[in-house]
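To whoever picks this up:

The nightly regression suite flagged Deoxyribodipyrimidine photo-lyase as changed. Nothing in the input moved, so I suspect the structure step. Input below, exactly as stored in the fixture:
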Amino acid sequence: MKALWFRRDLRLTDNYAMYALENDLEYDKEVSWFAFYHVDPVFLEEKCLHHHYFFQQVKAFEQECREKGITLHFIYGTHPFQDLLSAVPDLSAVYFNEDEAAWEAQRDQAIRDYLHKHGVYTYAYPDAHLHHSGEVMKKDGSPYKIFTPYFRAWQMLPKPRPYPCNLERFKQRQAEPALQDTHELAFNEMEAFDEAMNREAEPVFESEAIQKMSTFIHEDLPNYENSRDIPAEDATSRLSPLIKTGRLSVRTIYSALEPYVEQGSSAAQKYLAELAWRDFYNMIHAYFSELKKKEMNEKYRNLQWEYQEEQWEKWKNGTTGFPFVDAAMRQLNAEGWLHNRGRMAAASFLVKDYHIDWRLGEDYFRRQLIDYDPSSNAGGWQWTASTGSDAAPYFRVFSPVRQSKRFDPDGIYIKTYVPELKHVPARFIHEPWKMDEAAAEKAACIPGRDYPLPDVTHKTAAHQAIEMFKGDRNV
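Regenerated output under the current build:
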């Protein structure tokens, strides 16, 4: 008997491990199979948004499986394979889509070792990215550290096509193993988790994910290149949570995008680069497993970061007094998603204006983002902090006011998430502390009372950050 282990690949179409199992079922007419999902109590302990979002997709996926005649078994506990082997002694192989980076890769290897020790074969497949971590290398076999040459090499490689899955064949060969029935327990635990989070459910069914992708590529793509940096416009794909949870395959996205790439669409090329960035950071993380905890650039591993609790709380809650940064953080806290321009501005402010360690920001985003991806999140934070691969130079510091004026000139984004400023005129919306008394009264927003005053001067803070990187500042 063979098993298909679903993880962050919650779909019944274009699933590499599922496709591989189907081929083996076709080859061996006598073997049967079953599908399972493991609910780890550890992930129920931390009440973070990406766990909440993920469990919503698990429940939606289970419903889809049931409707299509596939039984998704649930294993609940900290030792899933010990329980699995006890319940299914004739288990011969486990198929799954692998993780390649950091502790996730170590976990997968430990599982392989355990199963092999007990006579069970494992078949793991790179499913979450267009190219796996070892596929795009320099001529000398070493990994790229700069994105542009990586992207050039990445573009030259043929892209994998979607993997078709025949559900009828799967249904005909489906087994009913004598697993302990933990379905109700697993679902009760997930329901309790959802109630504790006190947030609306956000299940997305696979057909909805594909429709959302199709609408973006076939209708919204033309506006992407010019509007993708404007957070007030709904101009990004917002597909990242669906990619992260596996409700949508990157191969399916590329297949839909490819005709526009071949036509020379610059917007399609821009979006293609975003998919390449995912692969790039996955590759970086696979070769530098401490990406979340240690600066890639060795000379910046002893930077003297500051920490003031009051400033940390201001940043988290969106009350720094810089409207664009505050709007970004409030969007993050309210929606569990953040526009990329807002991510960069908020991250830069934390490390270059407040001089707070980037690791704290990375961890806060980890807990708040529904599309949290360990490699992309850590890679992005190290880019902003000027400590990572192909990072922004330390002397280039985002101005929160200039970012605001450039990407939200009329303050539409700001007013959406910072309602205290909704009546502030456009000429003051980026720097409300400059309002005179009459303007403040008319806007019903007195700086320092209705909306906080900044506690840093950007020019001074940026200079201090530069001196810190140069090693000329003692903290």
